[in-house]
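Input for the complex:
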Amino acid sequence: MPDFVTQIGLNHYVILATLLFVIGLGGVLTSRNVVRVLMAVELMLNAVNINLVAFNNYLQPGDHLFGQVFAIFVLTVSAAEASVGLAIVIALYRSRATADVEKFDLLKY
Amino acid sequence: MVDSAIFWAIALFSVGAALGAVLSRSIINAALCLIVVFLSIAGVFVLNNADFLAIAQVIIYAVGLTIIMLFAIMFTGDRPLPQQRSNPVARIASGIVVLYIFGLLIRAVAGAFPANASLSRTPEFIQTMATQGSTTELGKLLFMTYAMPFEIASILLLAAMIGAIIIAKKRFVETSELETGLRFEIDRESAPSEEAIEAIRASRQIGSPTDQRLSPQMEIGGLEETEPATMVGVGTREGEQ
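Predicted:
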């Protein structure tokens, strides 16, 4: 078997994170349901976390875990973002009775 | 060998489920796919000696966040939108943007690191990781080196919690649901548009706007200043759930 199949290195994790990030970006740009937009944002944040943990494991000089601490802070911020985002979704649904992002044009005109 | 097999399984699962979360028609299925993605990413963390993060990932994302997402889906209705995707021009444009960014990122990272990069750890540390896990080390870092950011994160969470409650709270609730089965709310600043009221009414399949049982209630709704006590009570109960 070729080397890149059997030898899992940093490149594999970074490319996996890139794929997940790009899928999340596509979801943010194309979906019309506002809850799905939030899901895609969470996907992108998770892809970043993969990067932080993999870089910490492979490139951090010395026996430190700084990258994992940053990943924990990303986790915290994304939890805060999700709670506020979903509250906004519910408030928007009250005034518009739809989950379609293209109907949320109150500030457009 | 076993490691690589596990990695490829995890990679396949996460990318496939991520595609499912973004592309599937039903939003509920998307949320379920998202659980698979989060669990797979927890597996990636385990492969990278981050066991504490893996457990936190399962608890916070795969369980907590997805449940909240499902709540939001239930609140906003899980019917597929009549037109699921944005218009063709926007789709093509976002496709181009996505492909461009993908190419850019791949070009930046491909081959930037040695293909057989070994772990940058001393054997003793790897041994400690294997036997004790990373929790002790992480705890030391969080409460000593990063004590200040840790406290600031707690303030951030508190602010987010208060903000979420205030944003999602119902300000004024007009209920005539006992009579008509309809419950619609009148926001103090901006009453829902006719369109919104129509949409709610259509989704609940009830009578026309000139329904006899409904019109007196709507007049009461206009007199916001009086705000009868019962309505306030209902509002707080509904808002705080």
